[in-house]
Amino acid sequence: MRTQDNPFDILGVSPTDRKSVILERAEECALFDEPERIDRAKETLLDMNTRLAAELTCYRSEGAEGYLSYHRVGALLDQIYAAAARGESFAAEINALAACDETYAVPESEQFCRLLEEIKAHRAAAGLPAPDASALLDRLDALRRSIIAQLKECLNDLPAALLLKRMDEIAQLATHNGTARAPVLIEALLDMYEIETRQFADRQAGYIRAHLTKMRTAAPDAAYADKSLTELSAYLHTWQNVMQTLQIYYRSKGQEHAATAGIFGDLRETAIHLHNEGHRTILARRLLTVPMEMKALRYLPAKEQILQKDIALLSDMIRTMKTNLRERIAGNGQATEETTEESSGSGCFAVFAILGMLFFFVLLGNHGQSEQPHTEKPAAQTQQSERKNSTLENEAAQEQSAPKSPAPKPPAPKPSAEPVARSGIRTGYDPEQTRQNATGLCSVTVDNTQNNMPVYVRIWDMVRHTPVRAFYIRQGEEFTAENITPGLYEVRYIELYENDAPAQGAKSEQFHLEQRQTYGGTQYSEISLTLYKVRNGNMQTTSIAADEI
Questions:
Q1: 10 Å Cβ neighbour count for 88?
Q2: Tens digits of per-residue pLDDT, 467-487?
Q3: Domains of the chain (ranges plus CATH)?
């Protein structure tokens, strides 16, 4: 709520003024201001549900300590809108606003308790009933959603290029350039940004992959190669301008931005193909150099390091090619760069091919298996692989084309016992978990009729990063969680076994529940999620650890 919209400021009253004072001031203000505006302000302060939002963001002329640093929210929103109108950065103001919100996000915190007691004291002085902790928490959540909506509105009013720049600034400042978690409010804003840019990301990724496929199949000559790299660079620049904010965000959470990692995995695969199959080593190096020159992998350091090694290896190969070329010229005076590429690498070829295989098994092995979690190699194993690569590089010139004996096959794993569905499960809410975010009309139905195992399900509020509903569903049944407050959510679930405790569960894509008033009544979201034994239902899922459910 911005300053000019706060009912206390509109009427010129304080949180301790009684009902009679509010009514008297409303009559006076109606003579000089819009009667409808004054009437709305009066009704807001006399309704105990709507009054709380005004109390949280009002200004106090007394200058007393506290009254919720949340009173800064209105001022900060004013500053953000003013900076946006001037074309100036407002990342610092948004981070200050988020820090203010973060202080009171935890119900058990000292700040939250102090705020509640102060509001109760003001209500007592005004002769009005006091709110309880639950009402205050719900109002803080609603206020956070309102703030996010206002920030989104402010950002959407900016030109596209400036919007991207401002989001990048916000992410960098809030996460200390990807090294720390952002406040809850900013993470919610970044989650919204990811949802809004998803369609662009899918479309742009399609353009890039189609172009890479064309490069692999066209056997390009020098002129075509230059044109192709120029076009690809333009695609990647556009991608980076939009996705860098999310790369920073994911880095702050200790993760890689999967979409960017996938793009550059495909790019590297194309480079390997150009070298191994097309004998176009120079073009392969130029292709890998494109993302490095534009620093597109600065927030994916593991990928950046791999490409750096690839470029160094290819550069060594090219130097060897040029040396061979000079020797051939000295010998018979006839050689070209093209013949150099064709003869490039019998000796060096094996090294790059093997490094390529290591990359795909370690980093791109999930390409089509999105449900499998990514796991890092242990440090000792990584060191061993690096030593192996070094040995291969040193021995590359000595490698012959003679066939090698096949490696022995590992013994087949012993079959594990099939999980048994846990008995005694009844579909319904978990009695040990309290229901939160219960002030709306939205609903989420989880359909377990296609699964042969019972499941335990939690609906998570992704703004507060906390579960708000928890329930059991027997196999062959479904359950609907009702009266959910609008917001950003995801569903997490785990199968329940009689004879085992699964180490992994799954989570859905994030989704918005919306509720709004129309001339025909209230419109609200009704989401349905179908679970399958193989997690390929009507909403894409991702594997997570069991303790994250």
A1: 10
A2: 999 999 999 999 999 999 888
A3: 3-157 (no CATH), 196-369+383-398 (no CATH), 428-548 (2.60.40.1120)
